TrEMBL record:
A Pfam family assignment: Amidohydro_2
Record-given protein name: Amidohydrolase-related domain-containing protein
Single GO MF annotation: hydrolase activity
Residue stretches making up the Amidohydrolase-related domain: 43-337
Species per Swiss-Prot/TrEMBL record: Cudoniella acicularis
Amino acid sequence: MAKGTIAVEEAIIDPAGLASLSQWQSLLSPGNTPKLTMSAHETRLLDIHDKRLQSMDDEGVEYMLLSLTSPGCQGEADPVKAAKMAVEANDYLSGEVKKNPARFGALAALSMHDADEAAKELKRAVKELGMFGGLVNDFQSTGLEGAGKEYFDTEKYDPFWAMVQELDVPIYFHPRYRIKQDLEPETQYGVRKHLLGAGVSFHLDLSFHVYAVCSSGILDRYPGVKLVVGHLGEGIPFNLWRACHWINHPFKRGTRPCKNDYKYYFTNNVFITTSGFFSTSALKFCINEIGLERCLYAIDTPYENVKEGQEWWKSLDLSPEQKNLVGRRNAIRVFKLPLEE
């Protein structure tokens, strides 16, 4: 096929992971009949080579980077089960990609219970399975009834970040739904469930994690680490001036754990994508704020529609060179994809 766009945040589910989807149904689509809705949703997530590929052909998407849908391994509180889930998902997805490597690539699912094990599985996925990086769905659920939350900005995760730097592959930070303990009536979202999901809670929650990693010192210890953040950086580019203004403040500068401010890391370590955020003015702002070379195209299939994403993209009034960079060349460079620029 002729050169088209490269979409880098496109979800699938493996057959072994289908059982885990039902617990998120009421949050994904409140008010609908769970059995019917999940059946349609499962079909869209399972499909790779049929309607998904046809929509790519019809709309001009040359290539998709596929990844296990949220919450994936991060939603499994049992370390043994989460590790098994990662291995099974990665084996399955690499097998599907091999059926049509000219059109599909993959990002590895990772259990983040243990940093050394996560590093080991990432290395296996990249070196043996031919994957182009990894994807994590915000925090790792841990503990009894999954009530614990593990974030990846502590020194515990240094072995993982060391491996990320060694392999020189990106890690995609993706959102996830709140755990059930956060949805009790007396909690923040308990009586405000309309705020859950992609519209509000996803970017509020994941932006915290991204800010935490950027300011933790990890990117100073491992300056070669590359992070990719969808949905136009989960709102962070629009807050960079103020976030930097305060982390650079004399009251905070001497005690902050990072050497530099957020703008530095967003222009040296972080890349953002257009997944599920088809706004021309917002993309132009981000290009101006962090640079053209740090912005990549994504759709967010199947949660967003390929046709809608591509129609927006085709109407975008950037120069041909700018569109070529954001739409394909940046992705080829960042993920080291085996495609011609």
